[in-house]
Structure formats: C-alpha cells, structure tokens
Amino acid sequence: MTVTAEHGPGWAHEPDPGRRVTAAGRMLAVLDAFGPRHRSLTLSDIARRAGLSLSTAHRLVHELVAWGALERDGEGRYSVGLRLLELSALAPRGLGLREAAHPHLEDLHRATHGNVQLGVRDGTGVVYVEAIRARVRNPVNSRVGDRWPMHATGTGLVLLAHAEPEFQEQVLSSPLERFSPMTVIDPDVLRRTLASIRQTGVAVARGQITVPDMVVAVPVLDAGGRVAAAVSVVVEATEARTRELAGVLTQASRAISRTLGPRPVTGL
Amino acid sequence: MTVTAEHGPGWAHEPDPGRRVTAAGRMLAVLDAFGPRHRSLTLSDIARRAGLSLSTAHRLVHELVAWGALERDGEGRYSVGLRLLELSALAPRGLGLREAAHPHLEDLHRATHGNVQLGVRDGTGVVYVEAIRARVRNPVNSRVGDRWPMHATGTGLVLLAHAEPEFQEQVLSSPLERFSPMTVIDPDVLRRTLASIRQTGVAVARGQITVPDMVVAVPVLDAGGRVAAAVSVVVEATEARTRELAGVLTQASRAISRTLGPRPVTGL
C-alpha cells in the first residue's frame, strides 16, 4: 500500500516565497522547486514554482547547470544533478553515517526480510540517510533522502522521545498530519507513547503511515551516549514478532554505535 | 593502501574564483569550499576558500544554514547539511539509479567479497552513485558521491570506451593525473585499452588508483541500449579470477538494466 500523492516525503520543503528577497534566496528557491513529486521540470515550471520571472529563472538555472546542481535532458527538462550528490556525501550526518551503518543494516535486512531505515533528526522532521527495501513486498515509500514528520514514523518517534522536552512540545503543538487512518495525531496519546519509548527503549507503531505495516525502531547512540540516529524495520503486521525484531534491532544499533567511534556525531 | 591526501576524489571541484561575480555564484563558491578534505570549516576557512569577505561569507552561510544546506556544530564549525542529501535523492541518475541497482550490487558484493561501485559519467569524470565496501580489506577510497577521473577507474574506462569519439579525445588530450605508479596516462595506451574494452565488453585494470588492487568493470545499459552507467568490482590482485568476476559482473549488469525499465535514463 503506497502513500497517496497528496502526502509523502518532502512535505516540509514546498517553495517559500519569503526567501526570494535576496539573490542567494532566489537560487535556493530554484532548488526548492524540485521535490519528490517534481523531479523533472521545464524552465517555466521552475519559474512558476519558485515565483520568479522567466528571465531570472533562466539565468539562475543556467548558472546551476554550469555548476552541476541541475542537469538538462534531451527534451529541455531539468532535474537535480550529480554535483549535489557529491556535496551531500560530505554531510557528516548523511552518507558518512550511512556508510558506518551499512553492513549492519544489510544484516538486519537479511535477518528480518523487512524494509530497513536509518533516520536522523533534521529540523522538526526525520531524514532517512539509509533505506534498504525488500524487493517485492512492503512497497512503503522510504528512500534515502526522504523527509518525514516525526510523529508518523518509527525512527521519528524514537528521535522525538529522546529529544529535549521543549522540542517535543514544539512538535506536538504543531499541526500533525494524518498519513493513514491509523496515524496517531493526538498529542496526549503521543506523549504517553514517547514516555513508553524512553522506558522500553523501543518504538512499536502499526499502520502509522501505511496499513498494514508494523514498524519497530530503536535509537543509535554516538560515542558520547547521545541519540545520534534511529534505526527501524518495517514488516507486514501479520508477520511481526515484535520482541524478536526489537532484539535484532538493538544488536544492530549497538554494532552501529561501536563503528561511530570515539568522535561523537555532531550537529544534534 | 589508501589514496594519498594530495590526490583523491573531488579533484574537479576546487573553488573557482571566476564564479564569484554574481550573487548566486558567490553562494555556489561557499558550497565549493567544502570537499573530501574540507568537511568541517570555520567561517574564516569558508571566506578564504571561497575568496569572499568575512561579512559576505557570514551572510551567505547564515542563509545556507537557514535553508539546511549547511549545519553548524557546537564548536562553530560548519559542514554540509541534510537538505542537500534530500535534494540529491531527486537526481534521476543518482540515488534513483542506486536504488534500482542496490539489490544486485549487494549480490555482487556477497559473491565476490570485493568493493563494488556503480558509476555514471558527469562532466569529464565518473561519480559513484553506489559503493559497497568490504568490511576490512581493500580500504580503497570509494564512497557514494566520490568523483574520479575516467582514465584511472574501471567504471570510468568503461564509460569512456563507450562515449562519443570527440569526448574521448577531449579527455585523453587533457592532463591525466597519476594516482599510483601503475596509473596509465599515455593516451596511445589508453586508446588501445578503450578499443579492447569495446571489443571484450569488460575493463580490467590493475593498480590504477591503489596497489595491489585489481578492478573489473562492465557497462550497464538503459532500456534504449545505451550505456547509462558502469559497475565494477575491486579485489586484491592476488585473488583476482578475472574471467569469473567478469561473468558475475555481466549478470549483475543485465539484472540492473532490466530494472531500469522501458524509460531510458536521461542526461547521458
């Protein structure tokens, strides 16, 4: 069961007209025009979505293509280019973390046959820095680089449970989106869920984003003992053996923590 | 044997003072300040590397942090942020390709116990959109997002062999960097190598970047039959059974091609 087109990742990055006041802001608005449902855009799409004149958009797009942030296909449509992949590989909490975690996530995937995600907190959301999907089943929409709200994902609930109380309240008091009939959006219920996650060390959620999936998630600690990331496994609810999943997840999480070494992951 | 600090990925993106003439160019210069050997920079590092005044750098960095392209750690140093990972996930030749290829690359990794890379052509170089590394041995410097010159990598040689002749000559007539004593930089020898790759369908190179490694690489075709990417395996030369490796690589390549579906990968 896939996420409907109206919802899904990238929810926090619709173009923001307020940024268009500076030249640099206009360039960022061009980049913001791209999203999971807008991967390939014409020049006029970009101008419209970024709120720019066609000539300004043309000039900025030209500059971004020359730099490698965008590429132009044979039909004159633009998409995100590889220079951004190259740059994003430098993010200490991105592909570096992914790389440390990768073998353990593969083990986890093989042991559980579920979708495996590694997420970190960014702003008020969670961004997946790794996602390994089962080949056929569980076509849940989880990809590297996806951004989701915290209340609706296993990794997000874990990260929220271990965040500072002010941040928790900020998230819980903002409008909480419903992704499936089973998404919990009641702040009081969520507060109890977070307390339980802190107590048990494990988040278990059912159908929060897609029915009939069940997700089990645990925190990943950095060398300083702080929660740097969260790892989750999504399986079909009928197959979920929660306690068993929590066991292998905790093992994987400890293995990842060991590879994070003595230098704590920064920025959280 | 790792690559020395003087060489390595990212060679094509040292800051370019020529770009600083426009406001957007100055913002890209700030991003260009970051690289594999400059993952964490102070504000004055950024200003110096981007060729900007401290106040201009401060303003642009502030804007980039607000947008999520950069993040600031507790010690006031800046690094690349997760918004760029999120954006780069939209690149059709980046993480999308990676995702289609991933299970087959994992199989390849398991079958060969070597480092596995999936590379695409970008500008005059090759960018790895996936890299799976053996846990302990072969600590060759291959990571997702790494950019390498074509003449010195297995995937690059394959992509170059199947590129248009004008492009080949452009690459062969530019200065070719030596990464190890065994890197081939003689254009005539390289021309013969490219002809042989086209004939046999396989590139075999030994110690081109790191000694004592051997790399075997094959092309990945899109649904239109064009070379969209190249996949390679790096193993220790003493263990290389070239013919066997070429066989499993070709199988993996065909499996990846099938997942690329009827829509050709654009932009090449």
From TrEMBL, chains A, B:
Keyword Transcription listed: yes
Ranges annotated as spanning the membrane: none
Signal peptide from the UniProt entry: none
Recorded coiled-coil stretches: none
GO molecular function annotation: DNA binding; DNA-binding transcription factor activity
Keyword RNA-binding: no
SMART domains to which the protein is assigned, alphabetical: HTH_ICLR
Function: May be an activator protein for the gylABX operon.
Name of this chain's protein: Glycerol operon regulatory protein
Organism whose genome encodes this protein: Pseudonocardia alni
